[in-house]
Backbone:
């Protein structure tokens, strides 16, 4: 378990992305521009025309459990952390209301809109380290340091 004790104050950011923008890369650019150190998705509504997702069967040694979606999908849920090695999961619904979800690998191309509210735990810093047990880079929560502050 990785925790930073007594919690943190919260800062909230809202951002809108339009047609054709790739959502994961756009969120990572937003985080980098604002020098957010412990960012996470609070909520998101919108739609996409493409998505590449890793499914739950994937392991560190077999990451081939991947699906590529195309067509119009509503974003039903988007959750996760947005540090440099972002860890996001998405749930999408198709025109018939069927849902599919997984770990976001990229290609989340916005169809009409993506309205995202990003939270930042201002007293913390998120990093990732490879965990021997899972083989994946897992979240490490630490205190924000003076060197994390914008210049």
Residues:
């Amino acid at each position: 378990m990785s925790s930073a004790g007594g919690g943190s104050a919260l800062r909230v950011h809202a951002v809108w992305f339009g047609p054709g923008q790739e959502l994961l890369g756009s969120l990572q650019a937003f985080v980098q521009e604002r020098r957010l150190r412990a960012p996470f998705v609070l909520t998101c509504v919108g739609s996409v025309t493409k998505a590449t997702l890793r499914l739950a069967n994937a392991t560190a040694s077999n990451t081939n459990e991947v699906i590529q979606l195309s067509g119009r999908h509503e974003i039903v849920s988007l959750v996760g952390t947005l540090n440099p090695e972002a860890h996001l999961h998405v749930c999408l619904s198709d025109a018939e209301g069927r849902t599919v979800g997984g770990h976001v690998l990229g290609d989340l191309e916005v169809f009409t809109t993506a309205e995202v509210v990003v939270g930042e735990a201002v007293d913390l810093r998120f990093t990732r380290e490879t965990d021997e047990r899972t083989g994946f880079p897992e979240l490490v929560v630490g205190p924000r340091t003076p060197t994390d502050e914008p210049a």
Observations:
- Residues 10-140 form a domain with the 60s Ribosomal Protein L30; Chain: A; fold (CATH 3.30.1330.80).
- DSSP finds one helix and seven strands in the chain.
- The CA atoms of residues 63 and 134 lie 12 Å apart.
